[in-house]
Amino acid sequence: MAFTWRAANISYLQYSQICAKAVRSALKQEERLVAQKCEEQGLKFSKWVNGKQGDLQPVSSEVPKSV
């Protein structure tokens, strides 16, 4: 099985996200809720000045949707 994701003209990251979504949708309700909680991620940043880390600030939680 060659790289089917290349034949579909999508990136490997998109392919892995599609596979993960398919696996999560196949789970029973309880396991699906646990898997969805693991899916959520947060991103924070801080500015470093003179070798010291500043306050952590969350990055916007709004993720742009691909068209």
UniProtKB/TrEMBL annotation:
Gene3D superfamilies: ATP synthase, F1 complex, epsilon subunit superfamily, mitochondrial. Transmembrane segments: none annotated. InterPro entries: ATP_synth_F1_esu_mt (IPR006721), ATP_synth_F1_esu_sf_mt (IPR036742). It holds the Pfam family ATP-synt_Eps. Belongs to the eukaryotic ATPase epsilon family. This is Mitochondrial ATP synthase epsilon chain. The lineage of its organism: Eukaryota, Fungi, Fungi incertae sedis, Zoopagomycota, Entomophthoromycotina.
